[in-house]
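Hi D.,

Good news: the full-assembly prediction came through. Inputs first.
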Amino acid sequence: MKSDFSPYVPRPATLVAKKELNEYVTLFEFAQDSGKPLAHRPGQFIQVSVYGVGEAPFSVSSPPRTDHHHFEIAVRRVGSVTNALHGLEVGAKIGIRGPYGSYFPMQKFVGQDFLFVAGGLGYIPLRSVLHYMLRHRDEFGKLTLLVGTRNPGERIFTDQLAEISKRSDLDVLETVDAPDEEWQGNVGVITTLFPKIRINPETTYVATIGPPVMYRFVIQECSKLGIPQDRIYVSLERRMKCGLGKCGHCQINGLNCCLDGPVFCYTEIAGLGEAL
Amino acid sequence: MIAYTIYLPQIKGLLRKWSQEFEIHVPTRAEGDFFEFRPWTQEVEIAWDYDLAYTTLKKFFLPPKEDILCFNMKDYSANPVINAPRQLLLGVHPYDIKAVNQLDQLMDMDSPDVNYRARRDNTLIFGLEPANVADTAFWSSMGAARVDFGFDLYWTRISPGAFFVQVGSAKGEEMIKLDGPIEKSSVAQKEAARRAHLKILAQAEKRTLKYDWNRVPDQVNKFFSNRTFWMERAKTCLSCGSCNLVCPTCYCFDIQEEADDLLKQGKRYRQWDGCMLTGFAEIAGGHNFRASAWERYRHRYMRKGKYIFDKLGELGCVGCGRCVRACTARIANPREVYNDIWEAIKNEI
Ligand SMILES: Cc1cc2nc3c(=O)[nH]c(=O)nc-3n(C[C@H](O)[C@H](O)[C@H](O)COP(=O)(O)OP(=O)(O)OC[C@H]3O[C@@H](n4cnc5c(N)ncnc54)[C@H](O)[C@@H]3O)c2cc1C
Ligand code: SF4
Ligand code: SF4
Ligand code: FES
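Then the structure:
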C-alpha cells in the first residue's frame, strides 16, 4: 500500500555553504529544494538525514526568514551522522523533517529586556533568537549576552561575536573555564559573569541553553537577581528519534521533549525530577 | 446490543470464508502451559480457554521491525513504505483490546502515525471473554476486565458447544453472517454470557490491586522522589528490556536504516526499543539522562502509573501479567509495586 504522506518522509535540501567554526564544529548553510522558506521559529529543531547513515536532530541556528529558503545549522562532530555531515561538499543533498518542537515566544518578549546565557553549543540555538532580536532591534529593550566555553579552542562564531561585541545596543560578556596563554578575557564558569551584569529583573526575560550540568546553577543566579521563574526559558536536549512524540526516547517525566519542548518556560519543568 | 449465537460446528466454515480475505491469527497452545497467537490453518487447534498469550498482540500493529521509508541516495527522493496486511485476530482478551485502544489514541495523537493507522484499519479484532486467568494477571483491578469498544465482535463461550457473539461493528456483523444464516441470541443466552463474565471476574479477583486504580497516579507520584524504594526494587535489574518487549502498552522504538551494496538506495526501519535498556536516554557526549537501572525502572512504573494516565485518563498498565512472567530477576510487577507504595503511604500516616 502506498500513501502520499507520512510524517517520516524527509524533504531534500542542498548544501550551499560550509564554514568551520572550530576543530569539531562546522556551520552549514542549506537551501530547501522546494524553494520555500523553512518557516521555523527560534528554538525549533529539524531532523537531518544523511541517507545510508541515519538521522539526527539539530537546532536551526539562523533566524527565521520569510524572503529566503536558506537556513543554517551548526554541527559538532560526535558520531556517525555528524561526521557524515562534516564530510559533505557544497552541492550535496540531505533530507530534512520539521521544523519540530516548541519555540521561544518572541511576541511575549517585545518591549522587554533580554538576557542570553549560552553555554558551549547552547549558543547555536540561541543565535536564532539573538539574530532575530538584532534584526528587529527597536522592538526589544536592553539585550545582554553571556557566553561560556570550556576553553578558547572550543569557542564558536568568534568572528560574529567580535562583531556584535562592538555594538552599543548589546552587552556581550564572554568567559572560558580553562584559559590558554593567549586568552585575555574572563576566566571561570558562566555563572561568574552574573555579578558583572546590570539588569532589571522585572523587565528581563532570560533564555539559557547549555550542557545538562549548567541549568541549575544559571537558574540559581537568575533567582538571586530576583528574576521570576516565569521569565526564565530553557531549551533541553534529549535523545530523539522520531521528533513526533511517538518513539519515547526524549521523555522528561511525562513530557516529550520533542513536542512539549525543547523550549520550556522554567515553571513548566520546575517540579519535574528528570528535567534539570 | 445485537448478538448472535454461534455453534462450534459453524466456526470452521466461517474461518474458511474469512481466510479468503484475511490472515487469521488465533490463540494456540505453544509449549506446556504457554499460549501464543499463530496463523490459523485447518489443522490448528484454537485454544479457546487460553489464559494469556506469551507475546503481546501489539506486534500485529507495530511489528518488531517495520520498514517506514525507502530512499534514493543519489537524488534524495524518498517515499513512505506502508505495509498493512488484512488481518483478523480471533480470540483477543479484553485487557489486550484495552491495550490496543490505548495505542490507537497515542498513535493518532498529535502527528498521526500513518503506518500504525494503516495496519489498524486493515485489522479486525474478535474479542473473547477469558475462560482462565494467568497466575500473574491482575487485569480485573486495572479497569481492564471489560471493554466497550475496540472490537468488531466479542465472543463469550456460554456452553461447551456455543458462543454468544456480540456485534461491535458493521464489518463484524457482516463477517459473522458470511457463511449462511445464523441465530439471533435469546435473552437466556445473553444472561449466560453475563454469568460467564461474572464467573471469570470472580476468579480474577483473587489477585488484585489493593485499591482503586484511579488512585495509582497520585500514589506513585508521591513516591517519585523516594530513591531508596526504587533502588531497593531495581537492585537486581538486568536491564534486559524483557518487560518492555512483552508489554502490550509499551511502544517505544528506535529508527535505523540500511543501504544497498551499490549505495544507490536503501530503507529506513523502526524497531522495538525499551526504556529499560541502558542507552535509551543517552545523548552525544555520553550523558545519560537515566544512567542507573533504578531510574529506568522508576520511569517504567511512572509511565504506566501516571504519565499515560495524564494523557488518556487510564492507566498504562492493563494488568496482563506478561512482564511478571518475563522477568528473570522477578522484579517486574506493577501490582506489587503499586500495592507496596500504597501500604507504605498508609503506614506513614
Ligand atoms: C533538539 C536537539 C537539538 C540539537 N541541536 C544540535 C545542534 O544544533 N548542533 C549539534 O552539533 N548537535 C545538536 N544536537 C545533538 C545532536 O542531535 C547529536 O549530536 C547527534 O544526534 C549525534 O548523532 P550521530 O549520528 O553523529 O551520533 P551517533 O553515532 O549516533 O552517536 C554518538 C553519540 O550521540 C548520541 N545520540 C545518538 N542519537 C542521538 C539523538 N537522536 N539525539 C541525541 N543524541 C544522540 C549517542 O548516544 C552517542 O552518545 C541536538 C539535539 C537535540 C535533541
Ligand atoms: S506493565 Fe506488565 S502487567 Fe502491565 S500491561 Fe505491561 S506487561 Fe502487562
Ligand atoms: S525489570 Fe526484569 S525484565 Fe525488566 S529490564 Fe529489569 S530484569 Fe529485565
Ligand atoms: S523524539 Fe520520539 S518521542 Fe520525542
